[in-house]
Design a protein that fits this description.
Elements (H helix, E strand, L loop, with lengths): L2 H26 L1 H5 L3 H28 L4 H22 L1
Helix pairs in contact: 1-4, 3-4
């Protein structure tokens, strides 16, 4: 696998992970999200973006070490990113 192909895979997984994390956030905190203004939503997204790199790296490490738990590692990473957004939301 060349570097360009690996980068494409990482970007696609990152996008899927972001989508999963946002889905968790909205399903978990639907009422609170509706009440947020634009600044609060941006703060939530910023916290989730900050957590994303570490969670994605952990996902890759876990999936490489134990490929049979890749699905659970992905779900754990999505929950970790969503949790960063929920923490900001609940502080506001």
């Amino acid at each position: 696998m060349d570097a360009k192909h690996a980068a494409n895979i990482e970007e696609e997984l990152g996008n899927k992970l972001a989508e999963a994390a946002l889905t968790i956030l909205v399903r978990t905190c639907r009422q609170e999200i509706r009440a947020c203004d634009d600044a609060q939503l941006e703060a939530i997204c910023q916290a989730m973006r900050a957590a994303a790199r570490a969670e994605l790296e952990r996902f890759f490490d876990d999936a490489r070490a134990a490929p049979w738990i890749a699905t659970a590692a992905f779900q754990s990473a999505a929950l970790g990113i969503a949790n960063a957004g929920i923490a900001v939301l609940r502080k506001a």
